[in-house]
Structure formats: structure tokens, C-alpha cells
Amino acid sequence: MTTAVFSPEQIAALSAPLDRAKVQTRSQAGRSLAYLEGWQAIAEANRIFGFDGWQRETIAVHCVAERERTLGSSNRAGWGVTYTARVRIRVGDVIREGSGAGHGIDVDLGQAHESALKEAETDAMKRALMTFGNPFGLALYDKQQREVTSSAAPTPVASANPSSRPAEVAPKRQSHLPAQPEVDPSLDPLDPGTIHQLHSTIRSLPRPALEGLTKAFRKRFQVPPDAPSIADRISQRRHRDWIETFLLQHQQVVA
Predict the structure, then answer these.
(1) Which of 30, 45, 146, 246 has the smallest CB count inside 10 Å?
(2) Beta bridge partner(s), residue 99
(3) Is 206 part of any domain?
């Protein structure tokens, strides 16, 4: 007798449409590409599978290119580096793998390698997670994006228990009322206690980790170069989620 890996609630969450609010876009080769950020994929895996319900393992990584190049309009001397990676995701007895590539461009060769390696691992992880369903970006591979919606509600997810019964869902009613603008929950303000806790955690980091987090935060949230600190920028739920994911990826624990 085969034991079910996923609970009915988890299956419902994996089958649910992708919330468009979680989708980012970028321009590449004259086209607009839709994608999920790495921290978003990790947050969804934690939500659906549980914080201790899935494992990620990098099983292969290779540097496939390293060359000198000029950077920006100033033509500064720098480096371009490319890595490929393969990542394995395990959820119970289910194993999925994905391959990805990452590119790093920097004046410093070490920084270029670091950026390319991280990007390759994140890309491979997202491709592996994508095979589990829409919340991890599977819906974006449909050119018409029929499973991407602007009204997706968070799906409650319980533990992986085959005996659990899914909650009944009321029939969807048609409404001719004008759609109300959605409020992105990631923009919710943090309470002072949470902000203080994050500040304390960041200050306790070793100097290399502190500098790495600060640099990455400035880049992610476009903090102006003349801003003396990122402390006053940590004010929303998305900031907390990003910091916790960064620390998780660097094997740090948020107290």
C-alpha cells in the first residue's frame, strides 16, 4: 500500500493559481520575462511543505567561463564569470532536480565568482521546485498564463497527513462590482518589537556576514548610496522575509 506524501491541503495549495502579486518581470533581449525571486520560492516551500518538511542539496556546480571584460560606460576593467549548478529538492520520498546558470560581473574577481555561484544555485533550485506546481512558477511556462491570477488567496496548508480532510470551498459567485485593488501583504508594516529583533540579529552577525547582508539588501531594495545605514529601511514584512531567507541561505538563525 502506497502512503500519500502530500496532504489534501498541500495538493490544493500546489494546484492553486499563482498570485500575480508574487511575479516579477525583467527585460531580456527585447522581451519581458516573468519570474519568481529565489526568496519567494523558499517562502512558498516553507509555507506548503513546512519549515522542516523539505530539503535542498546542491549536487553539482561548475565554473564554465571566466574572462576579463570592461564594465559600464566608464569601461573599467573587470571580470565576467558564469557557473552552472544542479540542485536536488527532497520532500518526503519525492525527489526533484533542476539545473540552472548564473552570471557574475564585477571589478573584483572573487565577487564575480560569488555572484555567479549564488545565482546558479538559486536558478537551479527554482527549476527543481517549479516541477511541484503553480506556486513555484510552473504557471509562468504557459505563454497565456491561464493559471496566473490577480485574486489568488493564500491557501491554508496543514501537515502532510493523508487522513486530513480538505476544507469545503464555497462556489465562486459572479460579481459585477468593480474589482477592488489588492493590498500586497508583503508591504504590511512591521511592529516595533520585530524591527528591534531584526536590528539585534543583524548587529550580532560576524563582520563578513554583516557586510554581505548590507550590500545585498541595498541592491535588492535600491537603497540610495548616500544612505548611511539600512536600519531605517527595515520597516515592512517583505524586508523581514528577505532578511530571514538571506540568513537561512547563509546558515544563520534569526533569534
Answers:
(1) 30
(2) 86
(3) yes
56 CB-contact burial (10 Å; exposed 0-12 / middle 13-18 / buried 19+): middle
Q: How far apart are CA 183 and CA 8, in angstroms?
A: 28
Tell me the DSSP string of 188-220: PBPPHHHHHHHHHHHHTS-HHHHHHHHHHHHHH
- Residue span of the structural domain in which 132 resides: 8-149
C-alpha to C-alpha distance for 73 and 211, rounded to whole angstroms: 27
CA distances from 224 to 44, 192, 196, 220, 233 (A): 30, 23, 22, 11, 11
DSSP-derived 3-state class of residue 158: coil
The pTM for the full model equals 0.59
Query: Among 58, 42, 47, which Cα is nearest to 16's?
Result: 47
Strand partners, 61: 85
216 plus 104 within the same structural domain: no
In angstroms, the Cα distances linking 50 to 10, 55, 159, 224 are 10, 10, 7, 36
239 with 124, same domain? no
Q: Which of 149, 175, 206 is the last residue of a domain?
A: 149
Q: Which residue has the cell 519525492?
A: 94
Cα separation, 51 vs 205, in Å, equals: 22
- How far apart are the C-alpha atoms of 203 and 226, rounded to whole Å? 20
pLDDT digits (tens, 9 = 90+) for 121-154: 999 999 999 999 999 999 898 888 888 887 545 5
pLDDT digits (tens, 9 = 90+) for 213-252: 888 888 888 888 777 888 888 988 888 888 887 787 765 4
